[in-house]
Amino acid sequence: MAIYLDHNATTPLHEKVLEAMLPYMGGTTGNPSSLHRFGRLQRHAIDQAREQIAALMDAQASQVVFTSGGTEANNLMLKGLCKDSAVQRIAVSEIEHSSLLQPAAVVVDEGCAVDSIAVNPQGQVTPEALIHAIKDDTALVSVMAANNETGALQDIEKLAKEARSRGVWFHTDAAQVAGKMEFSFRQAGVHAMTLSAHKLYGPMGAGALIVDRQLPMHSILQGGSQENGLRAGTENVPAIVGFGMAAELARQEIVQRADHVRVLRDQLEKRLMQFGVVTVFAQQVQRLPNTLQFGVQGFDGETLLMELDRRGFAVSSGSACTSGKSEPSHVLKAMAVPDELATSAIRVSLGRSNTMAEIDLFVEAVQQIIGIQNSAVMMSANL
Amino acid sequence: MNDKTNKPIYLDYSATTPIDERVVTEMIKYMGPEGVFGNPASRSHAYGWTAEKAVEQARQHIADLVGADAREIIFTSGATESDNLAIKGSAHFNKKRGQHIITCKTEHKAVLDSCRQLEREGFEVTYLDPEANGLVDLEKLKAAMRDDTTLVSIMHVNNEIGVIQDIEAIGNACRERKIIFHVDAAQSAGKIPMNLESLPVDLMSFSAHKIYGPKGMGALYVQRKPRVRLEAQMHGGGHERGMRSGTLATHQIVGMGEAFRIANEEMATENERLITLRNRLWDGLKDMEEVYINGDIKQRVAGNLNISFNYVEGESLLMALKDLAISSGSACTSASLEPSYVLRALGRNDELAHSSIRFSMGRYTTNQDIDTTVAHVRTAVEKLRDLSPLWDMYKDGVDISSIEWAAH
Fewer CB within 10 A of the end CB, N or C, for chain B? Predict the structure, then answer.
């Protein structure tokens, strides 16, 4: 199998997470809503996971609402809040994930005004841009903590402070930052936060919205009073248990994990820059330690991806959720990256199992591809 | 639960089922660092393609069980989400054509609460009363249909009383009036053979964990010919033909596929066995005084028996039967002490509704389990009745329903 460099799309399940999940997959069963012993054991497991996730994000367990994933958490955030008729206007940054932007487009149809928060060419929301987007009746702003494509980090603490001082609630999609770097719900001063289990070595099929109870949230799924009435449906116990264990492991290993990938990423960046034709996106700002998105002047991204795949590297151009589309990413567009460069984008996102030897191989491969293409270009020019 | 001998006998298969070992084996192949772990939406590498292939294989297994085309299967996080998507998605999409919906009072909460939500949005909903046996009367349903009715939602098998609705007849009536027909099949898929190619059903909800698959996984059948259109309820990357966004949980999907594949193979033999077990249970209890089966006994799914033990309070009975994992009705409402709304809708009085127990048997239930259950239940019921003043009065020939209780 190829060398996996696409950890922002999904991560392999941690072996200890699998271990924690297995007892809830085989043998023991029970619906957490059932009153008998089987049911109560399942309920207990969910509560423990809630504590583990709260501990990782420095939030209260009672604020954790489990969902089927990050997409549902973002849907719940916007649609669940905008159902409250008092909420008439929100603002979201231009570079949000599609699971935030699409629900934002839907609440517009339901009569909630949605403003866009611009980013600068480095992919950051400045306090000025945020303040500019906040109108008198803005109830909520949403800015992601770390971008899935470029890895650019936002100064959430500062932005949330500006929002708070204007009486505006603040939501941050923390799916990419959680488990990769320390990030505190409490210290950031946000009112709500989205998490996804499978981005931090947990299972697919589990996510959470951590949400301050003062927000007038409504469930977007009807049919049961699970999760304090905010999320109907039988809880996905094994996935929730796995999510909890993944959070626990991340909390223990977060510094090592960040240091490990940062060393690899910095080396990769240094060597790619030496090629001269490589542009690293959001290079001037703080980024996730595992992420490097770059463009190669004069090359088509699809070709690069195919060549890298052929040589045994699993990378992507940007978001997995919109992959397969050849348009330049909305994130790079928002950063005013020229289309030509944006369509050549490659995202490398590293994980805990990657090694320096793999980085060396990857750099060699890129060099080869660029070299081959260069000579091909020259040859065709000579003809 | 260290003491295995103390493990209660599990007779709550309608609430959830254990995952079949064969299903776990398949799922593990897609879990862990050694497994296939790609995001099925990743288009640029083999990790993604392999995951996507597994997803499509599972989709085919699900389609095969119910006689659908794989392209008609949309994955969701469970039957609750499927019901929400079917009902709200269809009602919203057809809003301009009409805003009237018909359902039945005995539907699952996911259907009823979705309908309530639509009522809040201005839709009108007719909640049909079932007959005393739990079945919907076709003529009453037809009479409820209006020109502005866009959707009828009737479950295939009831989760509490196990009765099987005649979805073919209901579907035909809907077709005549060009009304979309949704069926919640969470309790019937894998238990009752069906062929959606010929069944007049437009939308059908499935759950994985009710049929030995994983929790957190469901699907919605959306008919392609003629095409049934829905408004998506989960927005994002446009997965599942735009009808349901969100990363596909590969291992869970694989688990659901394997569970459905096994059900397809073993349904016939398993049903025979379950009917034998159910008869064994009923044979062990039927000679007791004042016991009643709730719901039609013939039009009934194999593994379900719902019995009211008159003059015994259901919750006390549950407490007395600690060695049995059973419920008084739906798990989703079991935290409340209200009598079952399903039994109330059947016209059962509060007393009988309050004294009901749902026994739901499944793949791992044995004859021994049933015999032990019979013994426990008989003892517990007799003991509780000995303590019951109502039982004394009944034995003395007092007509309880004629008593006028003092207000307090």
Answer: C
**Are B12 and A221 inside 8 Å of each other by CB?**
no
Find out whether B310 and B290 touch, Cβ atoms under 8 Å. Answer: yes
Determine which one of A113, A321, A361, A365 is catalytic. Answer: A321
Between chains, do B215 and A235 touch, taking CB under 8 Å as contact?
Answer: yes
With CA atoms as reference, the chain A residue closest to B214 would be A25
Q: How far apart are CA B50 and CA A316, in angstroms?
A: 15
State the DSSP string of B137-154. Answer: PHHHHHHH--TTEEEEE-
H or E element that contains A363: helix A356-382
- Which chain A residue has its CA at the smallest distance from B4's CA? A28
Strand bridging mode A140-142 / A89-93: parallel
pLDDT, tens digit only, all 408 positions of chain B? 334 456 899 999 999 999 999 999 999 999 977 778 899 999 889 999 999 999 999 999 999 999 999 999 999 999 999 999 999 999 999 999 999 999 999 999 999 999 999 999 999 999 999 999 999 999 999 999 999 999 999 999 999 999 999 999 999 999 999 999 999 999 999 999 999 999 999 999 999 999 999 999 999 999 999 999 999 999 999 999 999 999 999 999 999 999 999 999 999 999 999 999 999 999 999 999 999 999 999 999 999 999 999 999 888 898 899 999 998 865 555 555 677 899 999 998 888 888 899 999 999 999 999 999 999 999 999 999 999 888 999 999 888 777 666 655
> For residues B93 and B228, is the Cβ–Cβ distance under 8 A?
no
Q: ipTM surpassing 0.90, yes or no?
A: yes
User: Is the Cβ of B83 closer than 8 Å to some Cβ of chain A?
Assistant: yes
Query: Nearest CA of chain A to the CA of B181: how many Å?
Result: 19
